[in-house]
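Review form for a predicted model. The reviewer records the input and the model, then writes brief findings.
Reviewer: anonymous (R2)
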Amino acid sequence: MRGIIFTSILIFVFSVLASSQTNIFVPLGHLVKQEMDNLAGAFIEKKAVKATDKIPFDLEGGLIFVEAILGDKKRSYILDSGAPTLILNSKASPEDNIEAIASGVSGHVTVNIKKVENFQLGDINSKNIEAFVTDISHLEKIKKRSIEGLIGMEHFKDSEILIDYEKSEILVMPEYRGNIVEHFENVETISFAADNHMPVVKIKIGYKTYLFGIDTGAEVNLISKHLKKEIENQGRHLNEKFEIAGIDKNQKRHDSAMIEEVELNNRTFKNMKFVFADMKYLNESYAADLDGLLGYPFLKKAIFSIDYKNKKLCIWEKNLPEEFDLMNEKNVPSIAKVNNK
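Model under review:
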């Protein structure tokens, strides 16, 4: 049997009411600024630009550990695109009295709500956000290291982040970035839905389309156990069993399979390993049911960025040499030149 695998996905069983629609007056000055913003975006569309920030991380198993600051204390957190907001370990933060029920991979868990005045990861600073507090000491025992919490979607809601597994860096992308940032070129862009809080994309297995969440906090790819028979002609079942641990403290052994081809937006990923799991707990809070999660084994196969603000999943390729000087326009290749006529 393999070691215990971590997937931190949380689905919180309460919702935020949408704001009512209001008519607003847009002054002429705002329209001029908007037009200038559009021109700025067009100008840099093919010009190489620098990332706003670079955040180093440690990759352990398939989890991304980063150093972040809560208050005045710098500690280790897991980057988790499957979590709705900041999740704090109750050992590190006193619990407040407001409670909510969350759903993990294997069951439900009670969490407390806490107001956080200031939380900073690199140059991204969140103020006065609601964080959820629960005991994750069992995950610390599994990973054999201190975990102060998980950094979820709320912290990145206005940002785009690129994960470079090869260099163990997270790049915070500039607002006006065009197709070339640092040494990367954006070669494909996929719109995603943000059900509850997680990026959700459509993938094809065989001739059928399924809904999968993008989860940087999952060490494995998960697929619904109810699809076992449906996909049996698309790969082979493995003798390997995985024990899955999440925020909830239930740990169960799961079967696995190797799927020969998984297609995302006409891009094919071959021989992807998936672990069968019961998705019912995760889907209790979703309007559209998820068929699975795409975790580290999938995300490491390409260079992805998640643009939360514009709901885009982008695929990148390294097209420029590492020694390329972004500040010297003479070094910009012809594909990145701006027409100054």
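Findings: The longest strand covers residues 108-121.
Further findings: Residues 28-43 form the longest helix (16 residues).
Recommendation: see findings above.
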